[in-house]
Specification:
alpha/beta, three-stranded antiparallel sheet, 10 helices, 10 strands, about 40% helix, globular, disordered N terminus, binds S-adenosylmethionine
Amino acid sequence: MAKDTRNMSVRLSDEDFSFICEFVYQSTGIVLNDSKREMVYRRLTRIIRERKLNAFSDYCQLLRTQGDEEKDYFINAITTNLTSFFREQHHFDYLADEELPNLMANKRAEANGKKRLRIWSSASSTGEEPYSIAITALESMRSVLSAWDVKILATDIDSNVLATGKTGVYEYRRIENIEEDFKQKYFKRGCGQNENNVRVNKELSNLITFKQLNLLHEWPMAGPFDVIFCRNVIIYFDKPTQQELFTRYYDLLAPGGLLMLGHSENLGAYQQHFDNVGRTIFRKPL
Ligand SMILES: C[S@@+](CC[C@H](N)C(=O)[O-])C[C@H]1O[C@@H](n2cnc3c(N)ncnc32)[C@H](O)[C@@H]1O
């Protein structure tokens, strides 16, 4: 019979931990090791309480036998979604000061008469990254926007964070440190019960499409992308997975396109295929 596990401590055996690590690796590419055991324990304890299970082994069995819904729920619980508006500001400065002026000066119009800009935020978490990209694009391109077809694709494996991104509602404190002018232009403060929240405006959300995508699976997009943000996600993967992803990012970038990595990430052996043009900013050669 299921017990109330609220006040009991449940042991995570080596066998169950190994199963969880392998399951997460196969499903997401995320490598868990002993240093993550405590984190796994905390997050799994929450789930087994919710499921009113007695032991981690019962949950492992559930993962083995249940369908995608339980698997998605589990993956959402395991992913680390830390992000913020204008995180690693230097990437947005590079877009505003170098890349967008360069594209505005040199891009040719497509057959439909518009110039095309495509940016992919490939581990977008709750959306702060793609919205920061959208603000940067609007600030740089406003005067020429009618001549452009601008689209930002935001993808993540985690369906919960995507739902937040799609809604575009954030606690006010999350935008506290961004420029005052951006707060006024792009966010609307809630009232009454919602006064601690802000909602992104339509101008931003119209530029972005949020979609669930596991980076390990097939990518349905044709590209090419002018800029790809792949920040603070490959750090969770092993080297072979990273190198495979770099090849795929490279193939999806336009010649001259940019790949942005997170502050503690690098291209490793794949560096030879790109030019390093700034701090964790890499350009596919023309
Ligand atoms: C730490 S957040 C980074 C968010 C944002 N890029 C930034 O730098 O602020 C890492 C994100 O990667 C996502 N992620 C992890 N494994 C993934 C996979 N296999 N495919 C797609 N997204 C994944 C997680 O769900 C999480 O939202």
